[in-house]
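[Meeting: bench + compute handoff]

Bench side (C.D.) handed over the final construct sequence. Compute side (W.E.) agreed to return the predicted structure before the next meeting so the bench team could plan truncations. Sequence as handed over:
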Amino acid sequence: MVRKRLSVFDAGMTLTPMIDIMTTLLAVFMVTTPMMTAGIDIDLPRAGTSAMTGNNHAIQISIDSNGDYYLLDTKMSIDNVVKRAVAMRGENPDLTIMLSGDRHADYGAVMAVMGKLKDVGFQRVGLRTQIDNK
């Protein structure tokens, strides 16, 4: 009588190659992410000698010296900035807005966007400055 041997296949998955790939991707993203968030060139006004602790998940709205508005790195009109901020608030009701106005920007341009954001219901709107190192 001939007996057949039942062969058992190892259906398990080896995780070592996947862990190696994920570790490599993590290292690549950790190195390249700071380079991608350079933003626009703004000369912030100096005020105070201590830094405020802010929310790391705030939307950055910038006003350059020419009075142009930027949401993150994208140049757009003041109305589009407000519309996009409102859309982002739909995903996160506790959204914070940080305004970065160039020191040579028109004060009215900074206050215009701040007023429009307050009019549509944003309660957490802050102004970014540099620490005065005197």
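W.E. noted at the follow-up: The two ends are 97 Å apart (CA to CA). C.D. will use this when planning the next construct.
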